[in-house]
Amino acid sequence: MFSKLEAPLFIREAVAQKKPHPLWVELLIFGVVFWVGGILQSVLLMPFTVVAMLGRMDEILALTESGSPEALVAFVTEMQKTPLLVIGSLLATVGMIVTVILYCRLLEKRSVASLGMRRPFVREYALGAFWGVVLFGGYVAFSMALGNLTFLGISEKCNVPMLLLLLICFLIQGFSEEILCRGYFMTSLCRTMPLPWALMLSSLFFSLFHVGNPGVDVLGLINIFLFGILMGLYMIRRGDIWGAAALHALWNFAEGCLADFSVSGLSMPSSLLAFGKEGASVFVAGGAFGPESGFAVTFVTTLGIVILLMMKNKDVKKD
Q1: DSSP-derived secondary structure for 34-103
Q2: How many CA atoms lie within 13 A of 66 on its CB side?
Q3: Residue 151, beta-bridge partner list
């Protein structure tokens, strides 16, 4: 029923181009790369933060004089939800992309092709984007059928220029997580362990990255893990990073900007459609963390994983 999980060409190239590190060294290096990428992201976010603070300096001074740490924390949390900082946070993830590529090219001496960045990419990217929307559509259909989620129509937050800008931002953000967790980390782990274990370990770390997100719960972390498995399998079956990056980006965009749900606990400043959540089943449709904390996402991701396990790698015959 299930096809053997074989390493596609880009993973075989990654394994061949660099001698394996011990597992603890591989994990340590990954931690350093993640840390450096996070610092670069913070630096890139700084101009957005400064502009946002300058526009609200009177409020900041008043809060500082009040001496209430709770009020200051609440203000900072509220500021992070402003359109400027949401956009800045998403755009700043280009820092992680640059960090991963520079590390792999300069220190590991790996080709970008070994990260899954293979050509041609337009068709694969479009196909991944299509499946990202279809997958999220499956979540919506499941939630409306069993979770009492209701469709209300066009959202009051609809702002077309903002939606287009957010789409670009999510394309960058989706690619940054895929190149870090799958293109780099999963392929590097394949030098020290079998592919299925590398897939699961990289997905576990991907899930743990979301522990600090607002509203996160156990089911949310499980579903993020399953989503990581789904993205890794998609990369393996299709033989490149492009489709998984597009699927990831369009899932997030559809979730936060087409349907106005939280994206891993974070709300977006604009959305196309509105859904009624009053009376909806939190267990099915998800809660404060967003759809990922609901059983509907468990269902659609598990279904996607099963389908991908039944498929064969695209590049087996070609290679």
Answers
A1: HHHHHHHHHHHHHHHHHHHHHTTHHHHHHHHHHT-HHHHHHHHHHHTTSHHHHHHHHHTTHHHHHHHHHI
A2: 13
A3: 275
Tens-digit pLDDT profile for residues 159-216: 999 999 999 999 999 999 999 999 999 999 999 999 999 999 999 999 999 998 988 9
User: Is the pTM above the cut of 0.90?
Assistant: yes
pLDDT at 1: 63
- Alpha-carbon gap, residue 42 to 88, rounded angstroms: 10
| The two structure tokens encoding residue 77 | 């949390």
Domain ranges of the chain: 9-310
- What is the rounded distance in angstroms from the CA atom of residue 296 to the CA atom of residue 139? 5
Residue 240 has, within 13 A of its CA and on its CB side, a CA count of 17
Using CA atoms, how far apart are residues 90 and 141, in angstroms rounded to an integer? 28
Q: What angle do CA 90, 93, 99 make, to 5 degrees?
A: 175
Positive or negative CA dihedral for 156, 162, 167, 172? negative
**Among candidate residues 124, 130, 135, the one with its CA nearest the CA of residue 302:** 135
Tracing tokens 């409020």 back to the chain, one arrives at: 59
245 and 139 in contact (C-beta within 8 Å)?
no
- Report helix, strand or coil for 261: coil
Residue 111 has what DSSP assignment?
A: -
Both structure tokens of 296 = 């509907």
Peptide bond into 47 cis (omega under 30): no
**Using alpha carbons only, how large is the chain's radius of gyration in Å?**
20
Tokens at 282, concatenated:
């939190």
